[in-house]
Amino acid sequence: MDVLSLRSYDYILPKELIAKYPANPKENAKLLVYNRRDKNIIHSNFWNFANFLPQDTLLVFNDTKVIPARFYGKKVLKDSKISQQGAKIEALFHKELESNSYLLQCKGRLKEGERIAFVGNIIAEIIKDKGMGFKEVRFFEVADGVLKPLKKEKFFAFLEQYGHIPLPPYIKRETKIQDREDYNAVFAKHLGAIAAPTASLHFSEGTFNALTQNFKHTYVTLHIGAGTFMGVSVDNILEHKIHKESFYISQESQQKISEATHITAIGTTATRVVEYFGLTGYGRGECDLFLHLPNKPLLTKALLTNFHLPKTTLLMLVASFVGLEEMQRIYKEAIKEKYRFYSYGDGMLIL
Q1: Residue 44 and residue 40: Cα distance in Å, rounded?
Q2: Catalysed reaction(s) (predicted)?
Q3: Residue 335 contacts by C-beta under 8 Å, 6 or more apart in sequence?
């Protein structure tokens, strides 16, 4: 079995196992516990999560918060007044590029120089076509019929008021107000992600408080981008260029991670930050670490994660902990036992 072949990371998932909503209560989600020492699998749930953890472990949480980054407008007709609008445009905010310049992913045909009108007298102008639906845009507000550059704080206030939580494309339903709560961890703090660190979604306020009272813990921040869902398209996974995501680790967290004898990462993003810090010593920057079998984690000894899409770097990260054949065995077992998959699905603890 070729660990570098993309085909090795493929599997078939029955559609009915894709979770559309989270478990309620959160702790009712199933938990598959895999012990690397004896390759044993235990089927449990999140009510028992703490019972499986080594007492001396340091829990590392990613405290990013998901932006309501998906929003809708209408194309402004050429040579018309702003009030004359055409086709509906769906936009997904990715990141700020520079002052009043942002990267959006847009559904709908748009050329450089064209404009989109949004509620609240907000206008976006396409500055540059970046390809693959990505556009560099500038935002303006209409005041007394005049376009004025939109300040950063007003742009994010606009998203907060009118934006929708950007549920992943495999969740085939409309977003609901409840998703603003469900698609963020109870400890989410720093706004900047457009996808959730989904392993963290399994903890209610009560369970999280119990964990932090009984185990050493710390936080890192990695703002997850849409690239986390992008599949690998090259046959040899080493040729894949992984996406970059901004991260930050406080001095206190750096010290805790450096001194820890055992680390349990709550999610793949926390893992990547911990390992990137271990390799580079950097406490902030752009993380582009690709963990896979030829590039295994060094600091992280245990991982809590959800069940991931086939042919993704997330699945390759899981394989870097357990090996390719064991990863395939675990996923077959999870499908047989009807675990719920992906962002709102069940979880797996690798020890």
Answers
A1: 13
A2: 7-aminomethyl-7-carbaguanosine(34) in tRNA + S-adenosyl-L-methionine = epoxyqueuosine(34) in tRNA + adenine + L-methionine + 2 H(+)
A3: 11, 13, 14, 17
- The one-letter amino acid code at 282 reads Y
| pLDDT value, residue 287 | 96
Assign domain 70-162 to its CATH superfamily. QueA-like (2.40.10.240)
Cα 46 to chain centroid distance, Å, stands at 21
Q: Both tokens of residue 289?
A: 């670490």
Domain with CATH 3.40.1780.10 in the chain: 6-66+175-350
Residues 263 and 283: beta-carbon distance below 8 Å? no
Q: Residue 350 and residue 266: Cα distance in Å, rounded?
A: 11
pLDDT single digits (tens) 158-182: 999 999 999 999 999 999 999 999 9
For the chain, residues classed under CATH 2.40.10.240 are 70-162
Superfamily of domain 6-66+175-350: QueA-like (3.40.1780.10)
Over residues 121-147, the mean pLDDT reads: 91
**347 token code pair:** 């979880």
Rg of the chain over Cα atoms, rounded to whole angstroms, equals 21
Q: What beta strand segments (E) does the chain contain?
A: 30-35, 40-45, 58-62, 64-66, 70-76, 85-98, 101-107, 115-118, 122-131, 134-143, 146-149, 190-193, 216-222, 245-248, 263-266, 284-287, 300-306, 347-350
Rounded CA-CA distance 255/257 in Å is 5
> Burial letters for 217-249: b for 16+ Cβ neighbours within 10 Å, e otherwise?
bbbbbbbbbbebbeebeeeebeebebbebbbbb
- 64-79 pLDDT per residue, tens: 999 999 999 999 876 5
CB 308 within 8 A of CB 269: no
| Bridge partner residues of 128 (DSSP) | 136
